[in-house]
Amino acid sequence: MNSESFDWHTFLGRWQEEWVPREEEDEDGQTLVSQGRPGADEAVIAAAERRLGRRLPPSYREFLAVSDGWHVDQTAGVYQLGGVADIDWFQDPFGMTPMYEESLGDHPREEEVLLAGMWRRALRLETDSDMSYALLDPGDSDEDGEWALYLYKGWGGEYPDRYPSFRAYMEAMYRSFHGDRAGRPDFVNATTRAQDAHVEEARLLALRGRHEEALPLLEEALSFGRPRSAVLLNQLRHLPAPRGSRDYGLLVADARYLPELLPVQAMEPARGEWRPGGDDHWLGMMAARGVARETAEAVLGAMRDGTHRYEPPGPWGRAVAEAREPARWGATDAAWRLLRDALPLWEAPGPSLIAPVGLLADPVLGPLITPERGREILATPRAGETGPVPEPTPDLDPPGLAWLTEAVSNRRASDGYRCVWVEGADPARLPALIGGKGARLGAPADQSTATWRRPAPETGHAEPWEDRAVVAVGRSTDEWIFAFDGDPNHLNERFVSPAPAASSAGRAVVVWRDPARMHPEGHPTAFHLSVAEQGEELYAFTVRGTDIQRSGAIPEALDPVRLFRPERSEADNELRVLEALHTELGLSLPRFALTRGSLRTFTTRSWTRAPREGESFAYIRFVRHRS
Questions:
Q1: Taking the complete model, does pTM exceed 0.90, yes or no?
Q2: Rounded to the nearest 5°, which phi and psi values hold at 124?
Q3: How far apart are CA 499 and CA 505, in angstroms?
Q4: Is beta strand 126-129 parallel, antiparallel or unpaired with respect to 132-141?
Q5: pLDDT tens for residues 366-414?
Q6: Which end of the chain has fewer CB atoms within 10 angstroms, the N or the C?
Q7: Beta strands 147-153; 123-124: pairing state
Q8: How many Cα atoms within 13 Å fall on the side-chain side of residue 597?
Q9: Beta bridge partners of 161
């Protein structure tokens, strides 16, 4: 820190000029004539240094020469800093050193060691406080000779707050002084006007796509407690971290912003990630902000069951509706391109909204917003403002099926999978083609947790021998729709391919990979392919190690003898057959939608037949009981 460039006269004079009591002090008629005292002479400061046996750090020394003490008036903590005659060594009167030393562990960080030793060597500055202490530590200094200042609130029990110098502490206390009084209508001065101008400047910069320039302006304004700074800053921080949560305060009750922000505030409780008190606590908090309870309950319910829809007005709203159709069937890159192209058309419902954060709460479109796409939204000029257009983020879905051999967000490379593709059909027809009794598409489901949703054998109307699958449904290309299960049971001899039933609407393909790791030792990985048309199976094969079972006229490009070679690894064989399926049949699957997106699901009919006379079966179900 270069203290020579800091003018203590100007800084303290401005603080004194702006000083007004807190609102609670007004009631008692308390006033303060002066926050400081005349500065100490150099000789007086030097005498204090001889008494202490140390030269004081530069910024504190310069402060004393301007004001020999100061009324800090922090809301909770230190109220008065003493002058030259008042300061003395702290000497750890409460025995904090042993407690902090005991917690150091075998490999403490440097800052932990410094803090443990601070209590015995620190210089105490405050003379009036609420069990709080302002401590300058000569053992924690920088290249400019500044000592770190630790603010310890004894009544709180937390670790002390560290400031790199006395000047940094005073600047923070000045901002705190402003923040404590920001709500007072009579608290208007040059600083508040300048910070409010920064907020407005940041708002316009953000709308022009210059969000990185807006951030520091809003961060500084927030440190002064200026209105709107927090809610604008939260929007700039939320979109690059779309899975996180942000607090939009009283704005959720404003009719202009409620449709956009209340669902966003409901995202965390809808996911079950809420503090003790659950829904009632959240609903009470929304009520305290002015949101009608029935409104909050309806929004939370829609968020929880996946039926909420982000429906903004105008051209942007029409683009959102158009993007929802490809997105809900897994074409997330196409959906994102529609949204990206329409971003300049987004209009703010009021001056406190600078980005379409309501998009995050949509169960279909929200998952499309990755951190990279969130930053692209912020970098795109919108709401009638102009500026440079950012470089588009790349598409996220690779072509074909090869990604199934790679580790992704919710599955390992060695995981099993099974999938049904149907050519030339509507994905909404899949429950009628291969679904169980009464099957229908459910609400959009988070695919990042899809592999843990397999139903127990006795669920619903299923027989214990049945192997039903919870499948995610979508469209992989213009020609093919799919039903995918990322956590299948074992492929056994009673397997009945759903391809013939699915092919009544067009050509159908079934692929099933059953990894060896799911079986006892000695059972190799199994891979099955079956293709059907007009209700009849055309060809099929099942490969288990070197054993190949086949039927029908298999095209040369899909011949299992050609694709599965014993001298190659299982992973290499799998990659080759998946590439062949993409090349020969045009099959693909949307990686993003199946691993990080949101797709509708249903439960299929059994993939295994009933046991015949003389056959037996067994299954094991594990149930964990709470102790």
A1: no
A2: -90, 130
A3: 11
A4: unpaired
A5: 999 999 999 999 999 999 999 999 999 999 999 999 999 998 877 787 7
A6: C
A7: unpaired
A8: 28
A9: 151
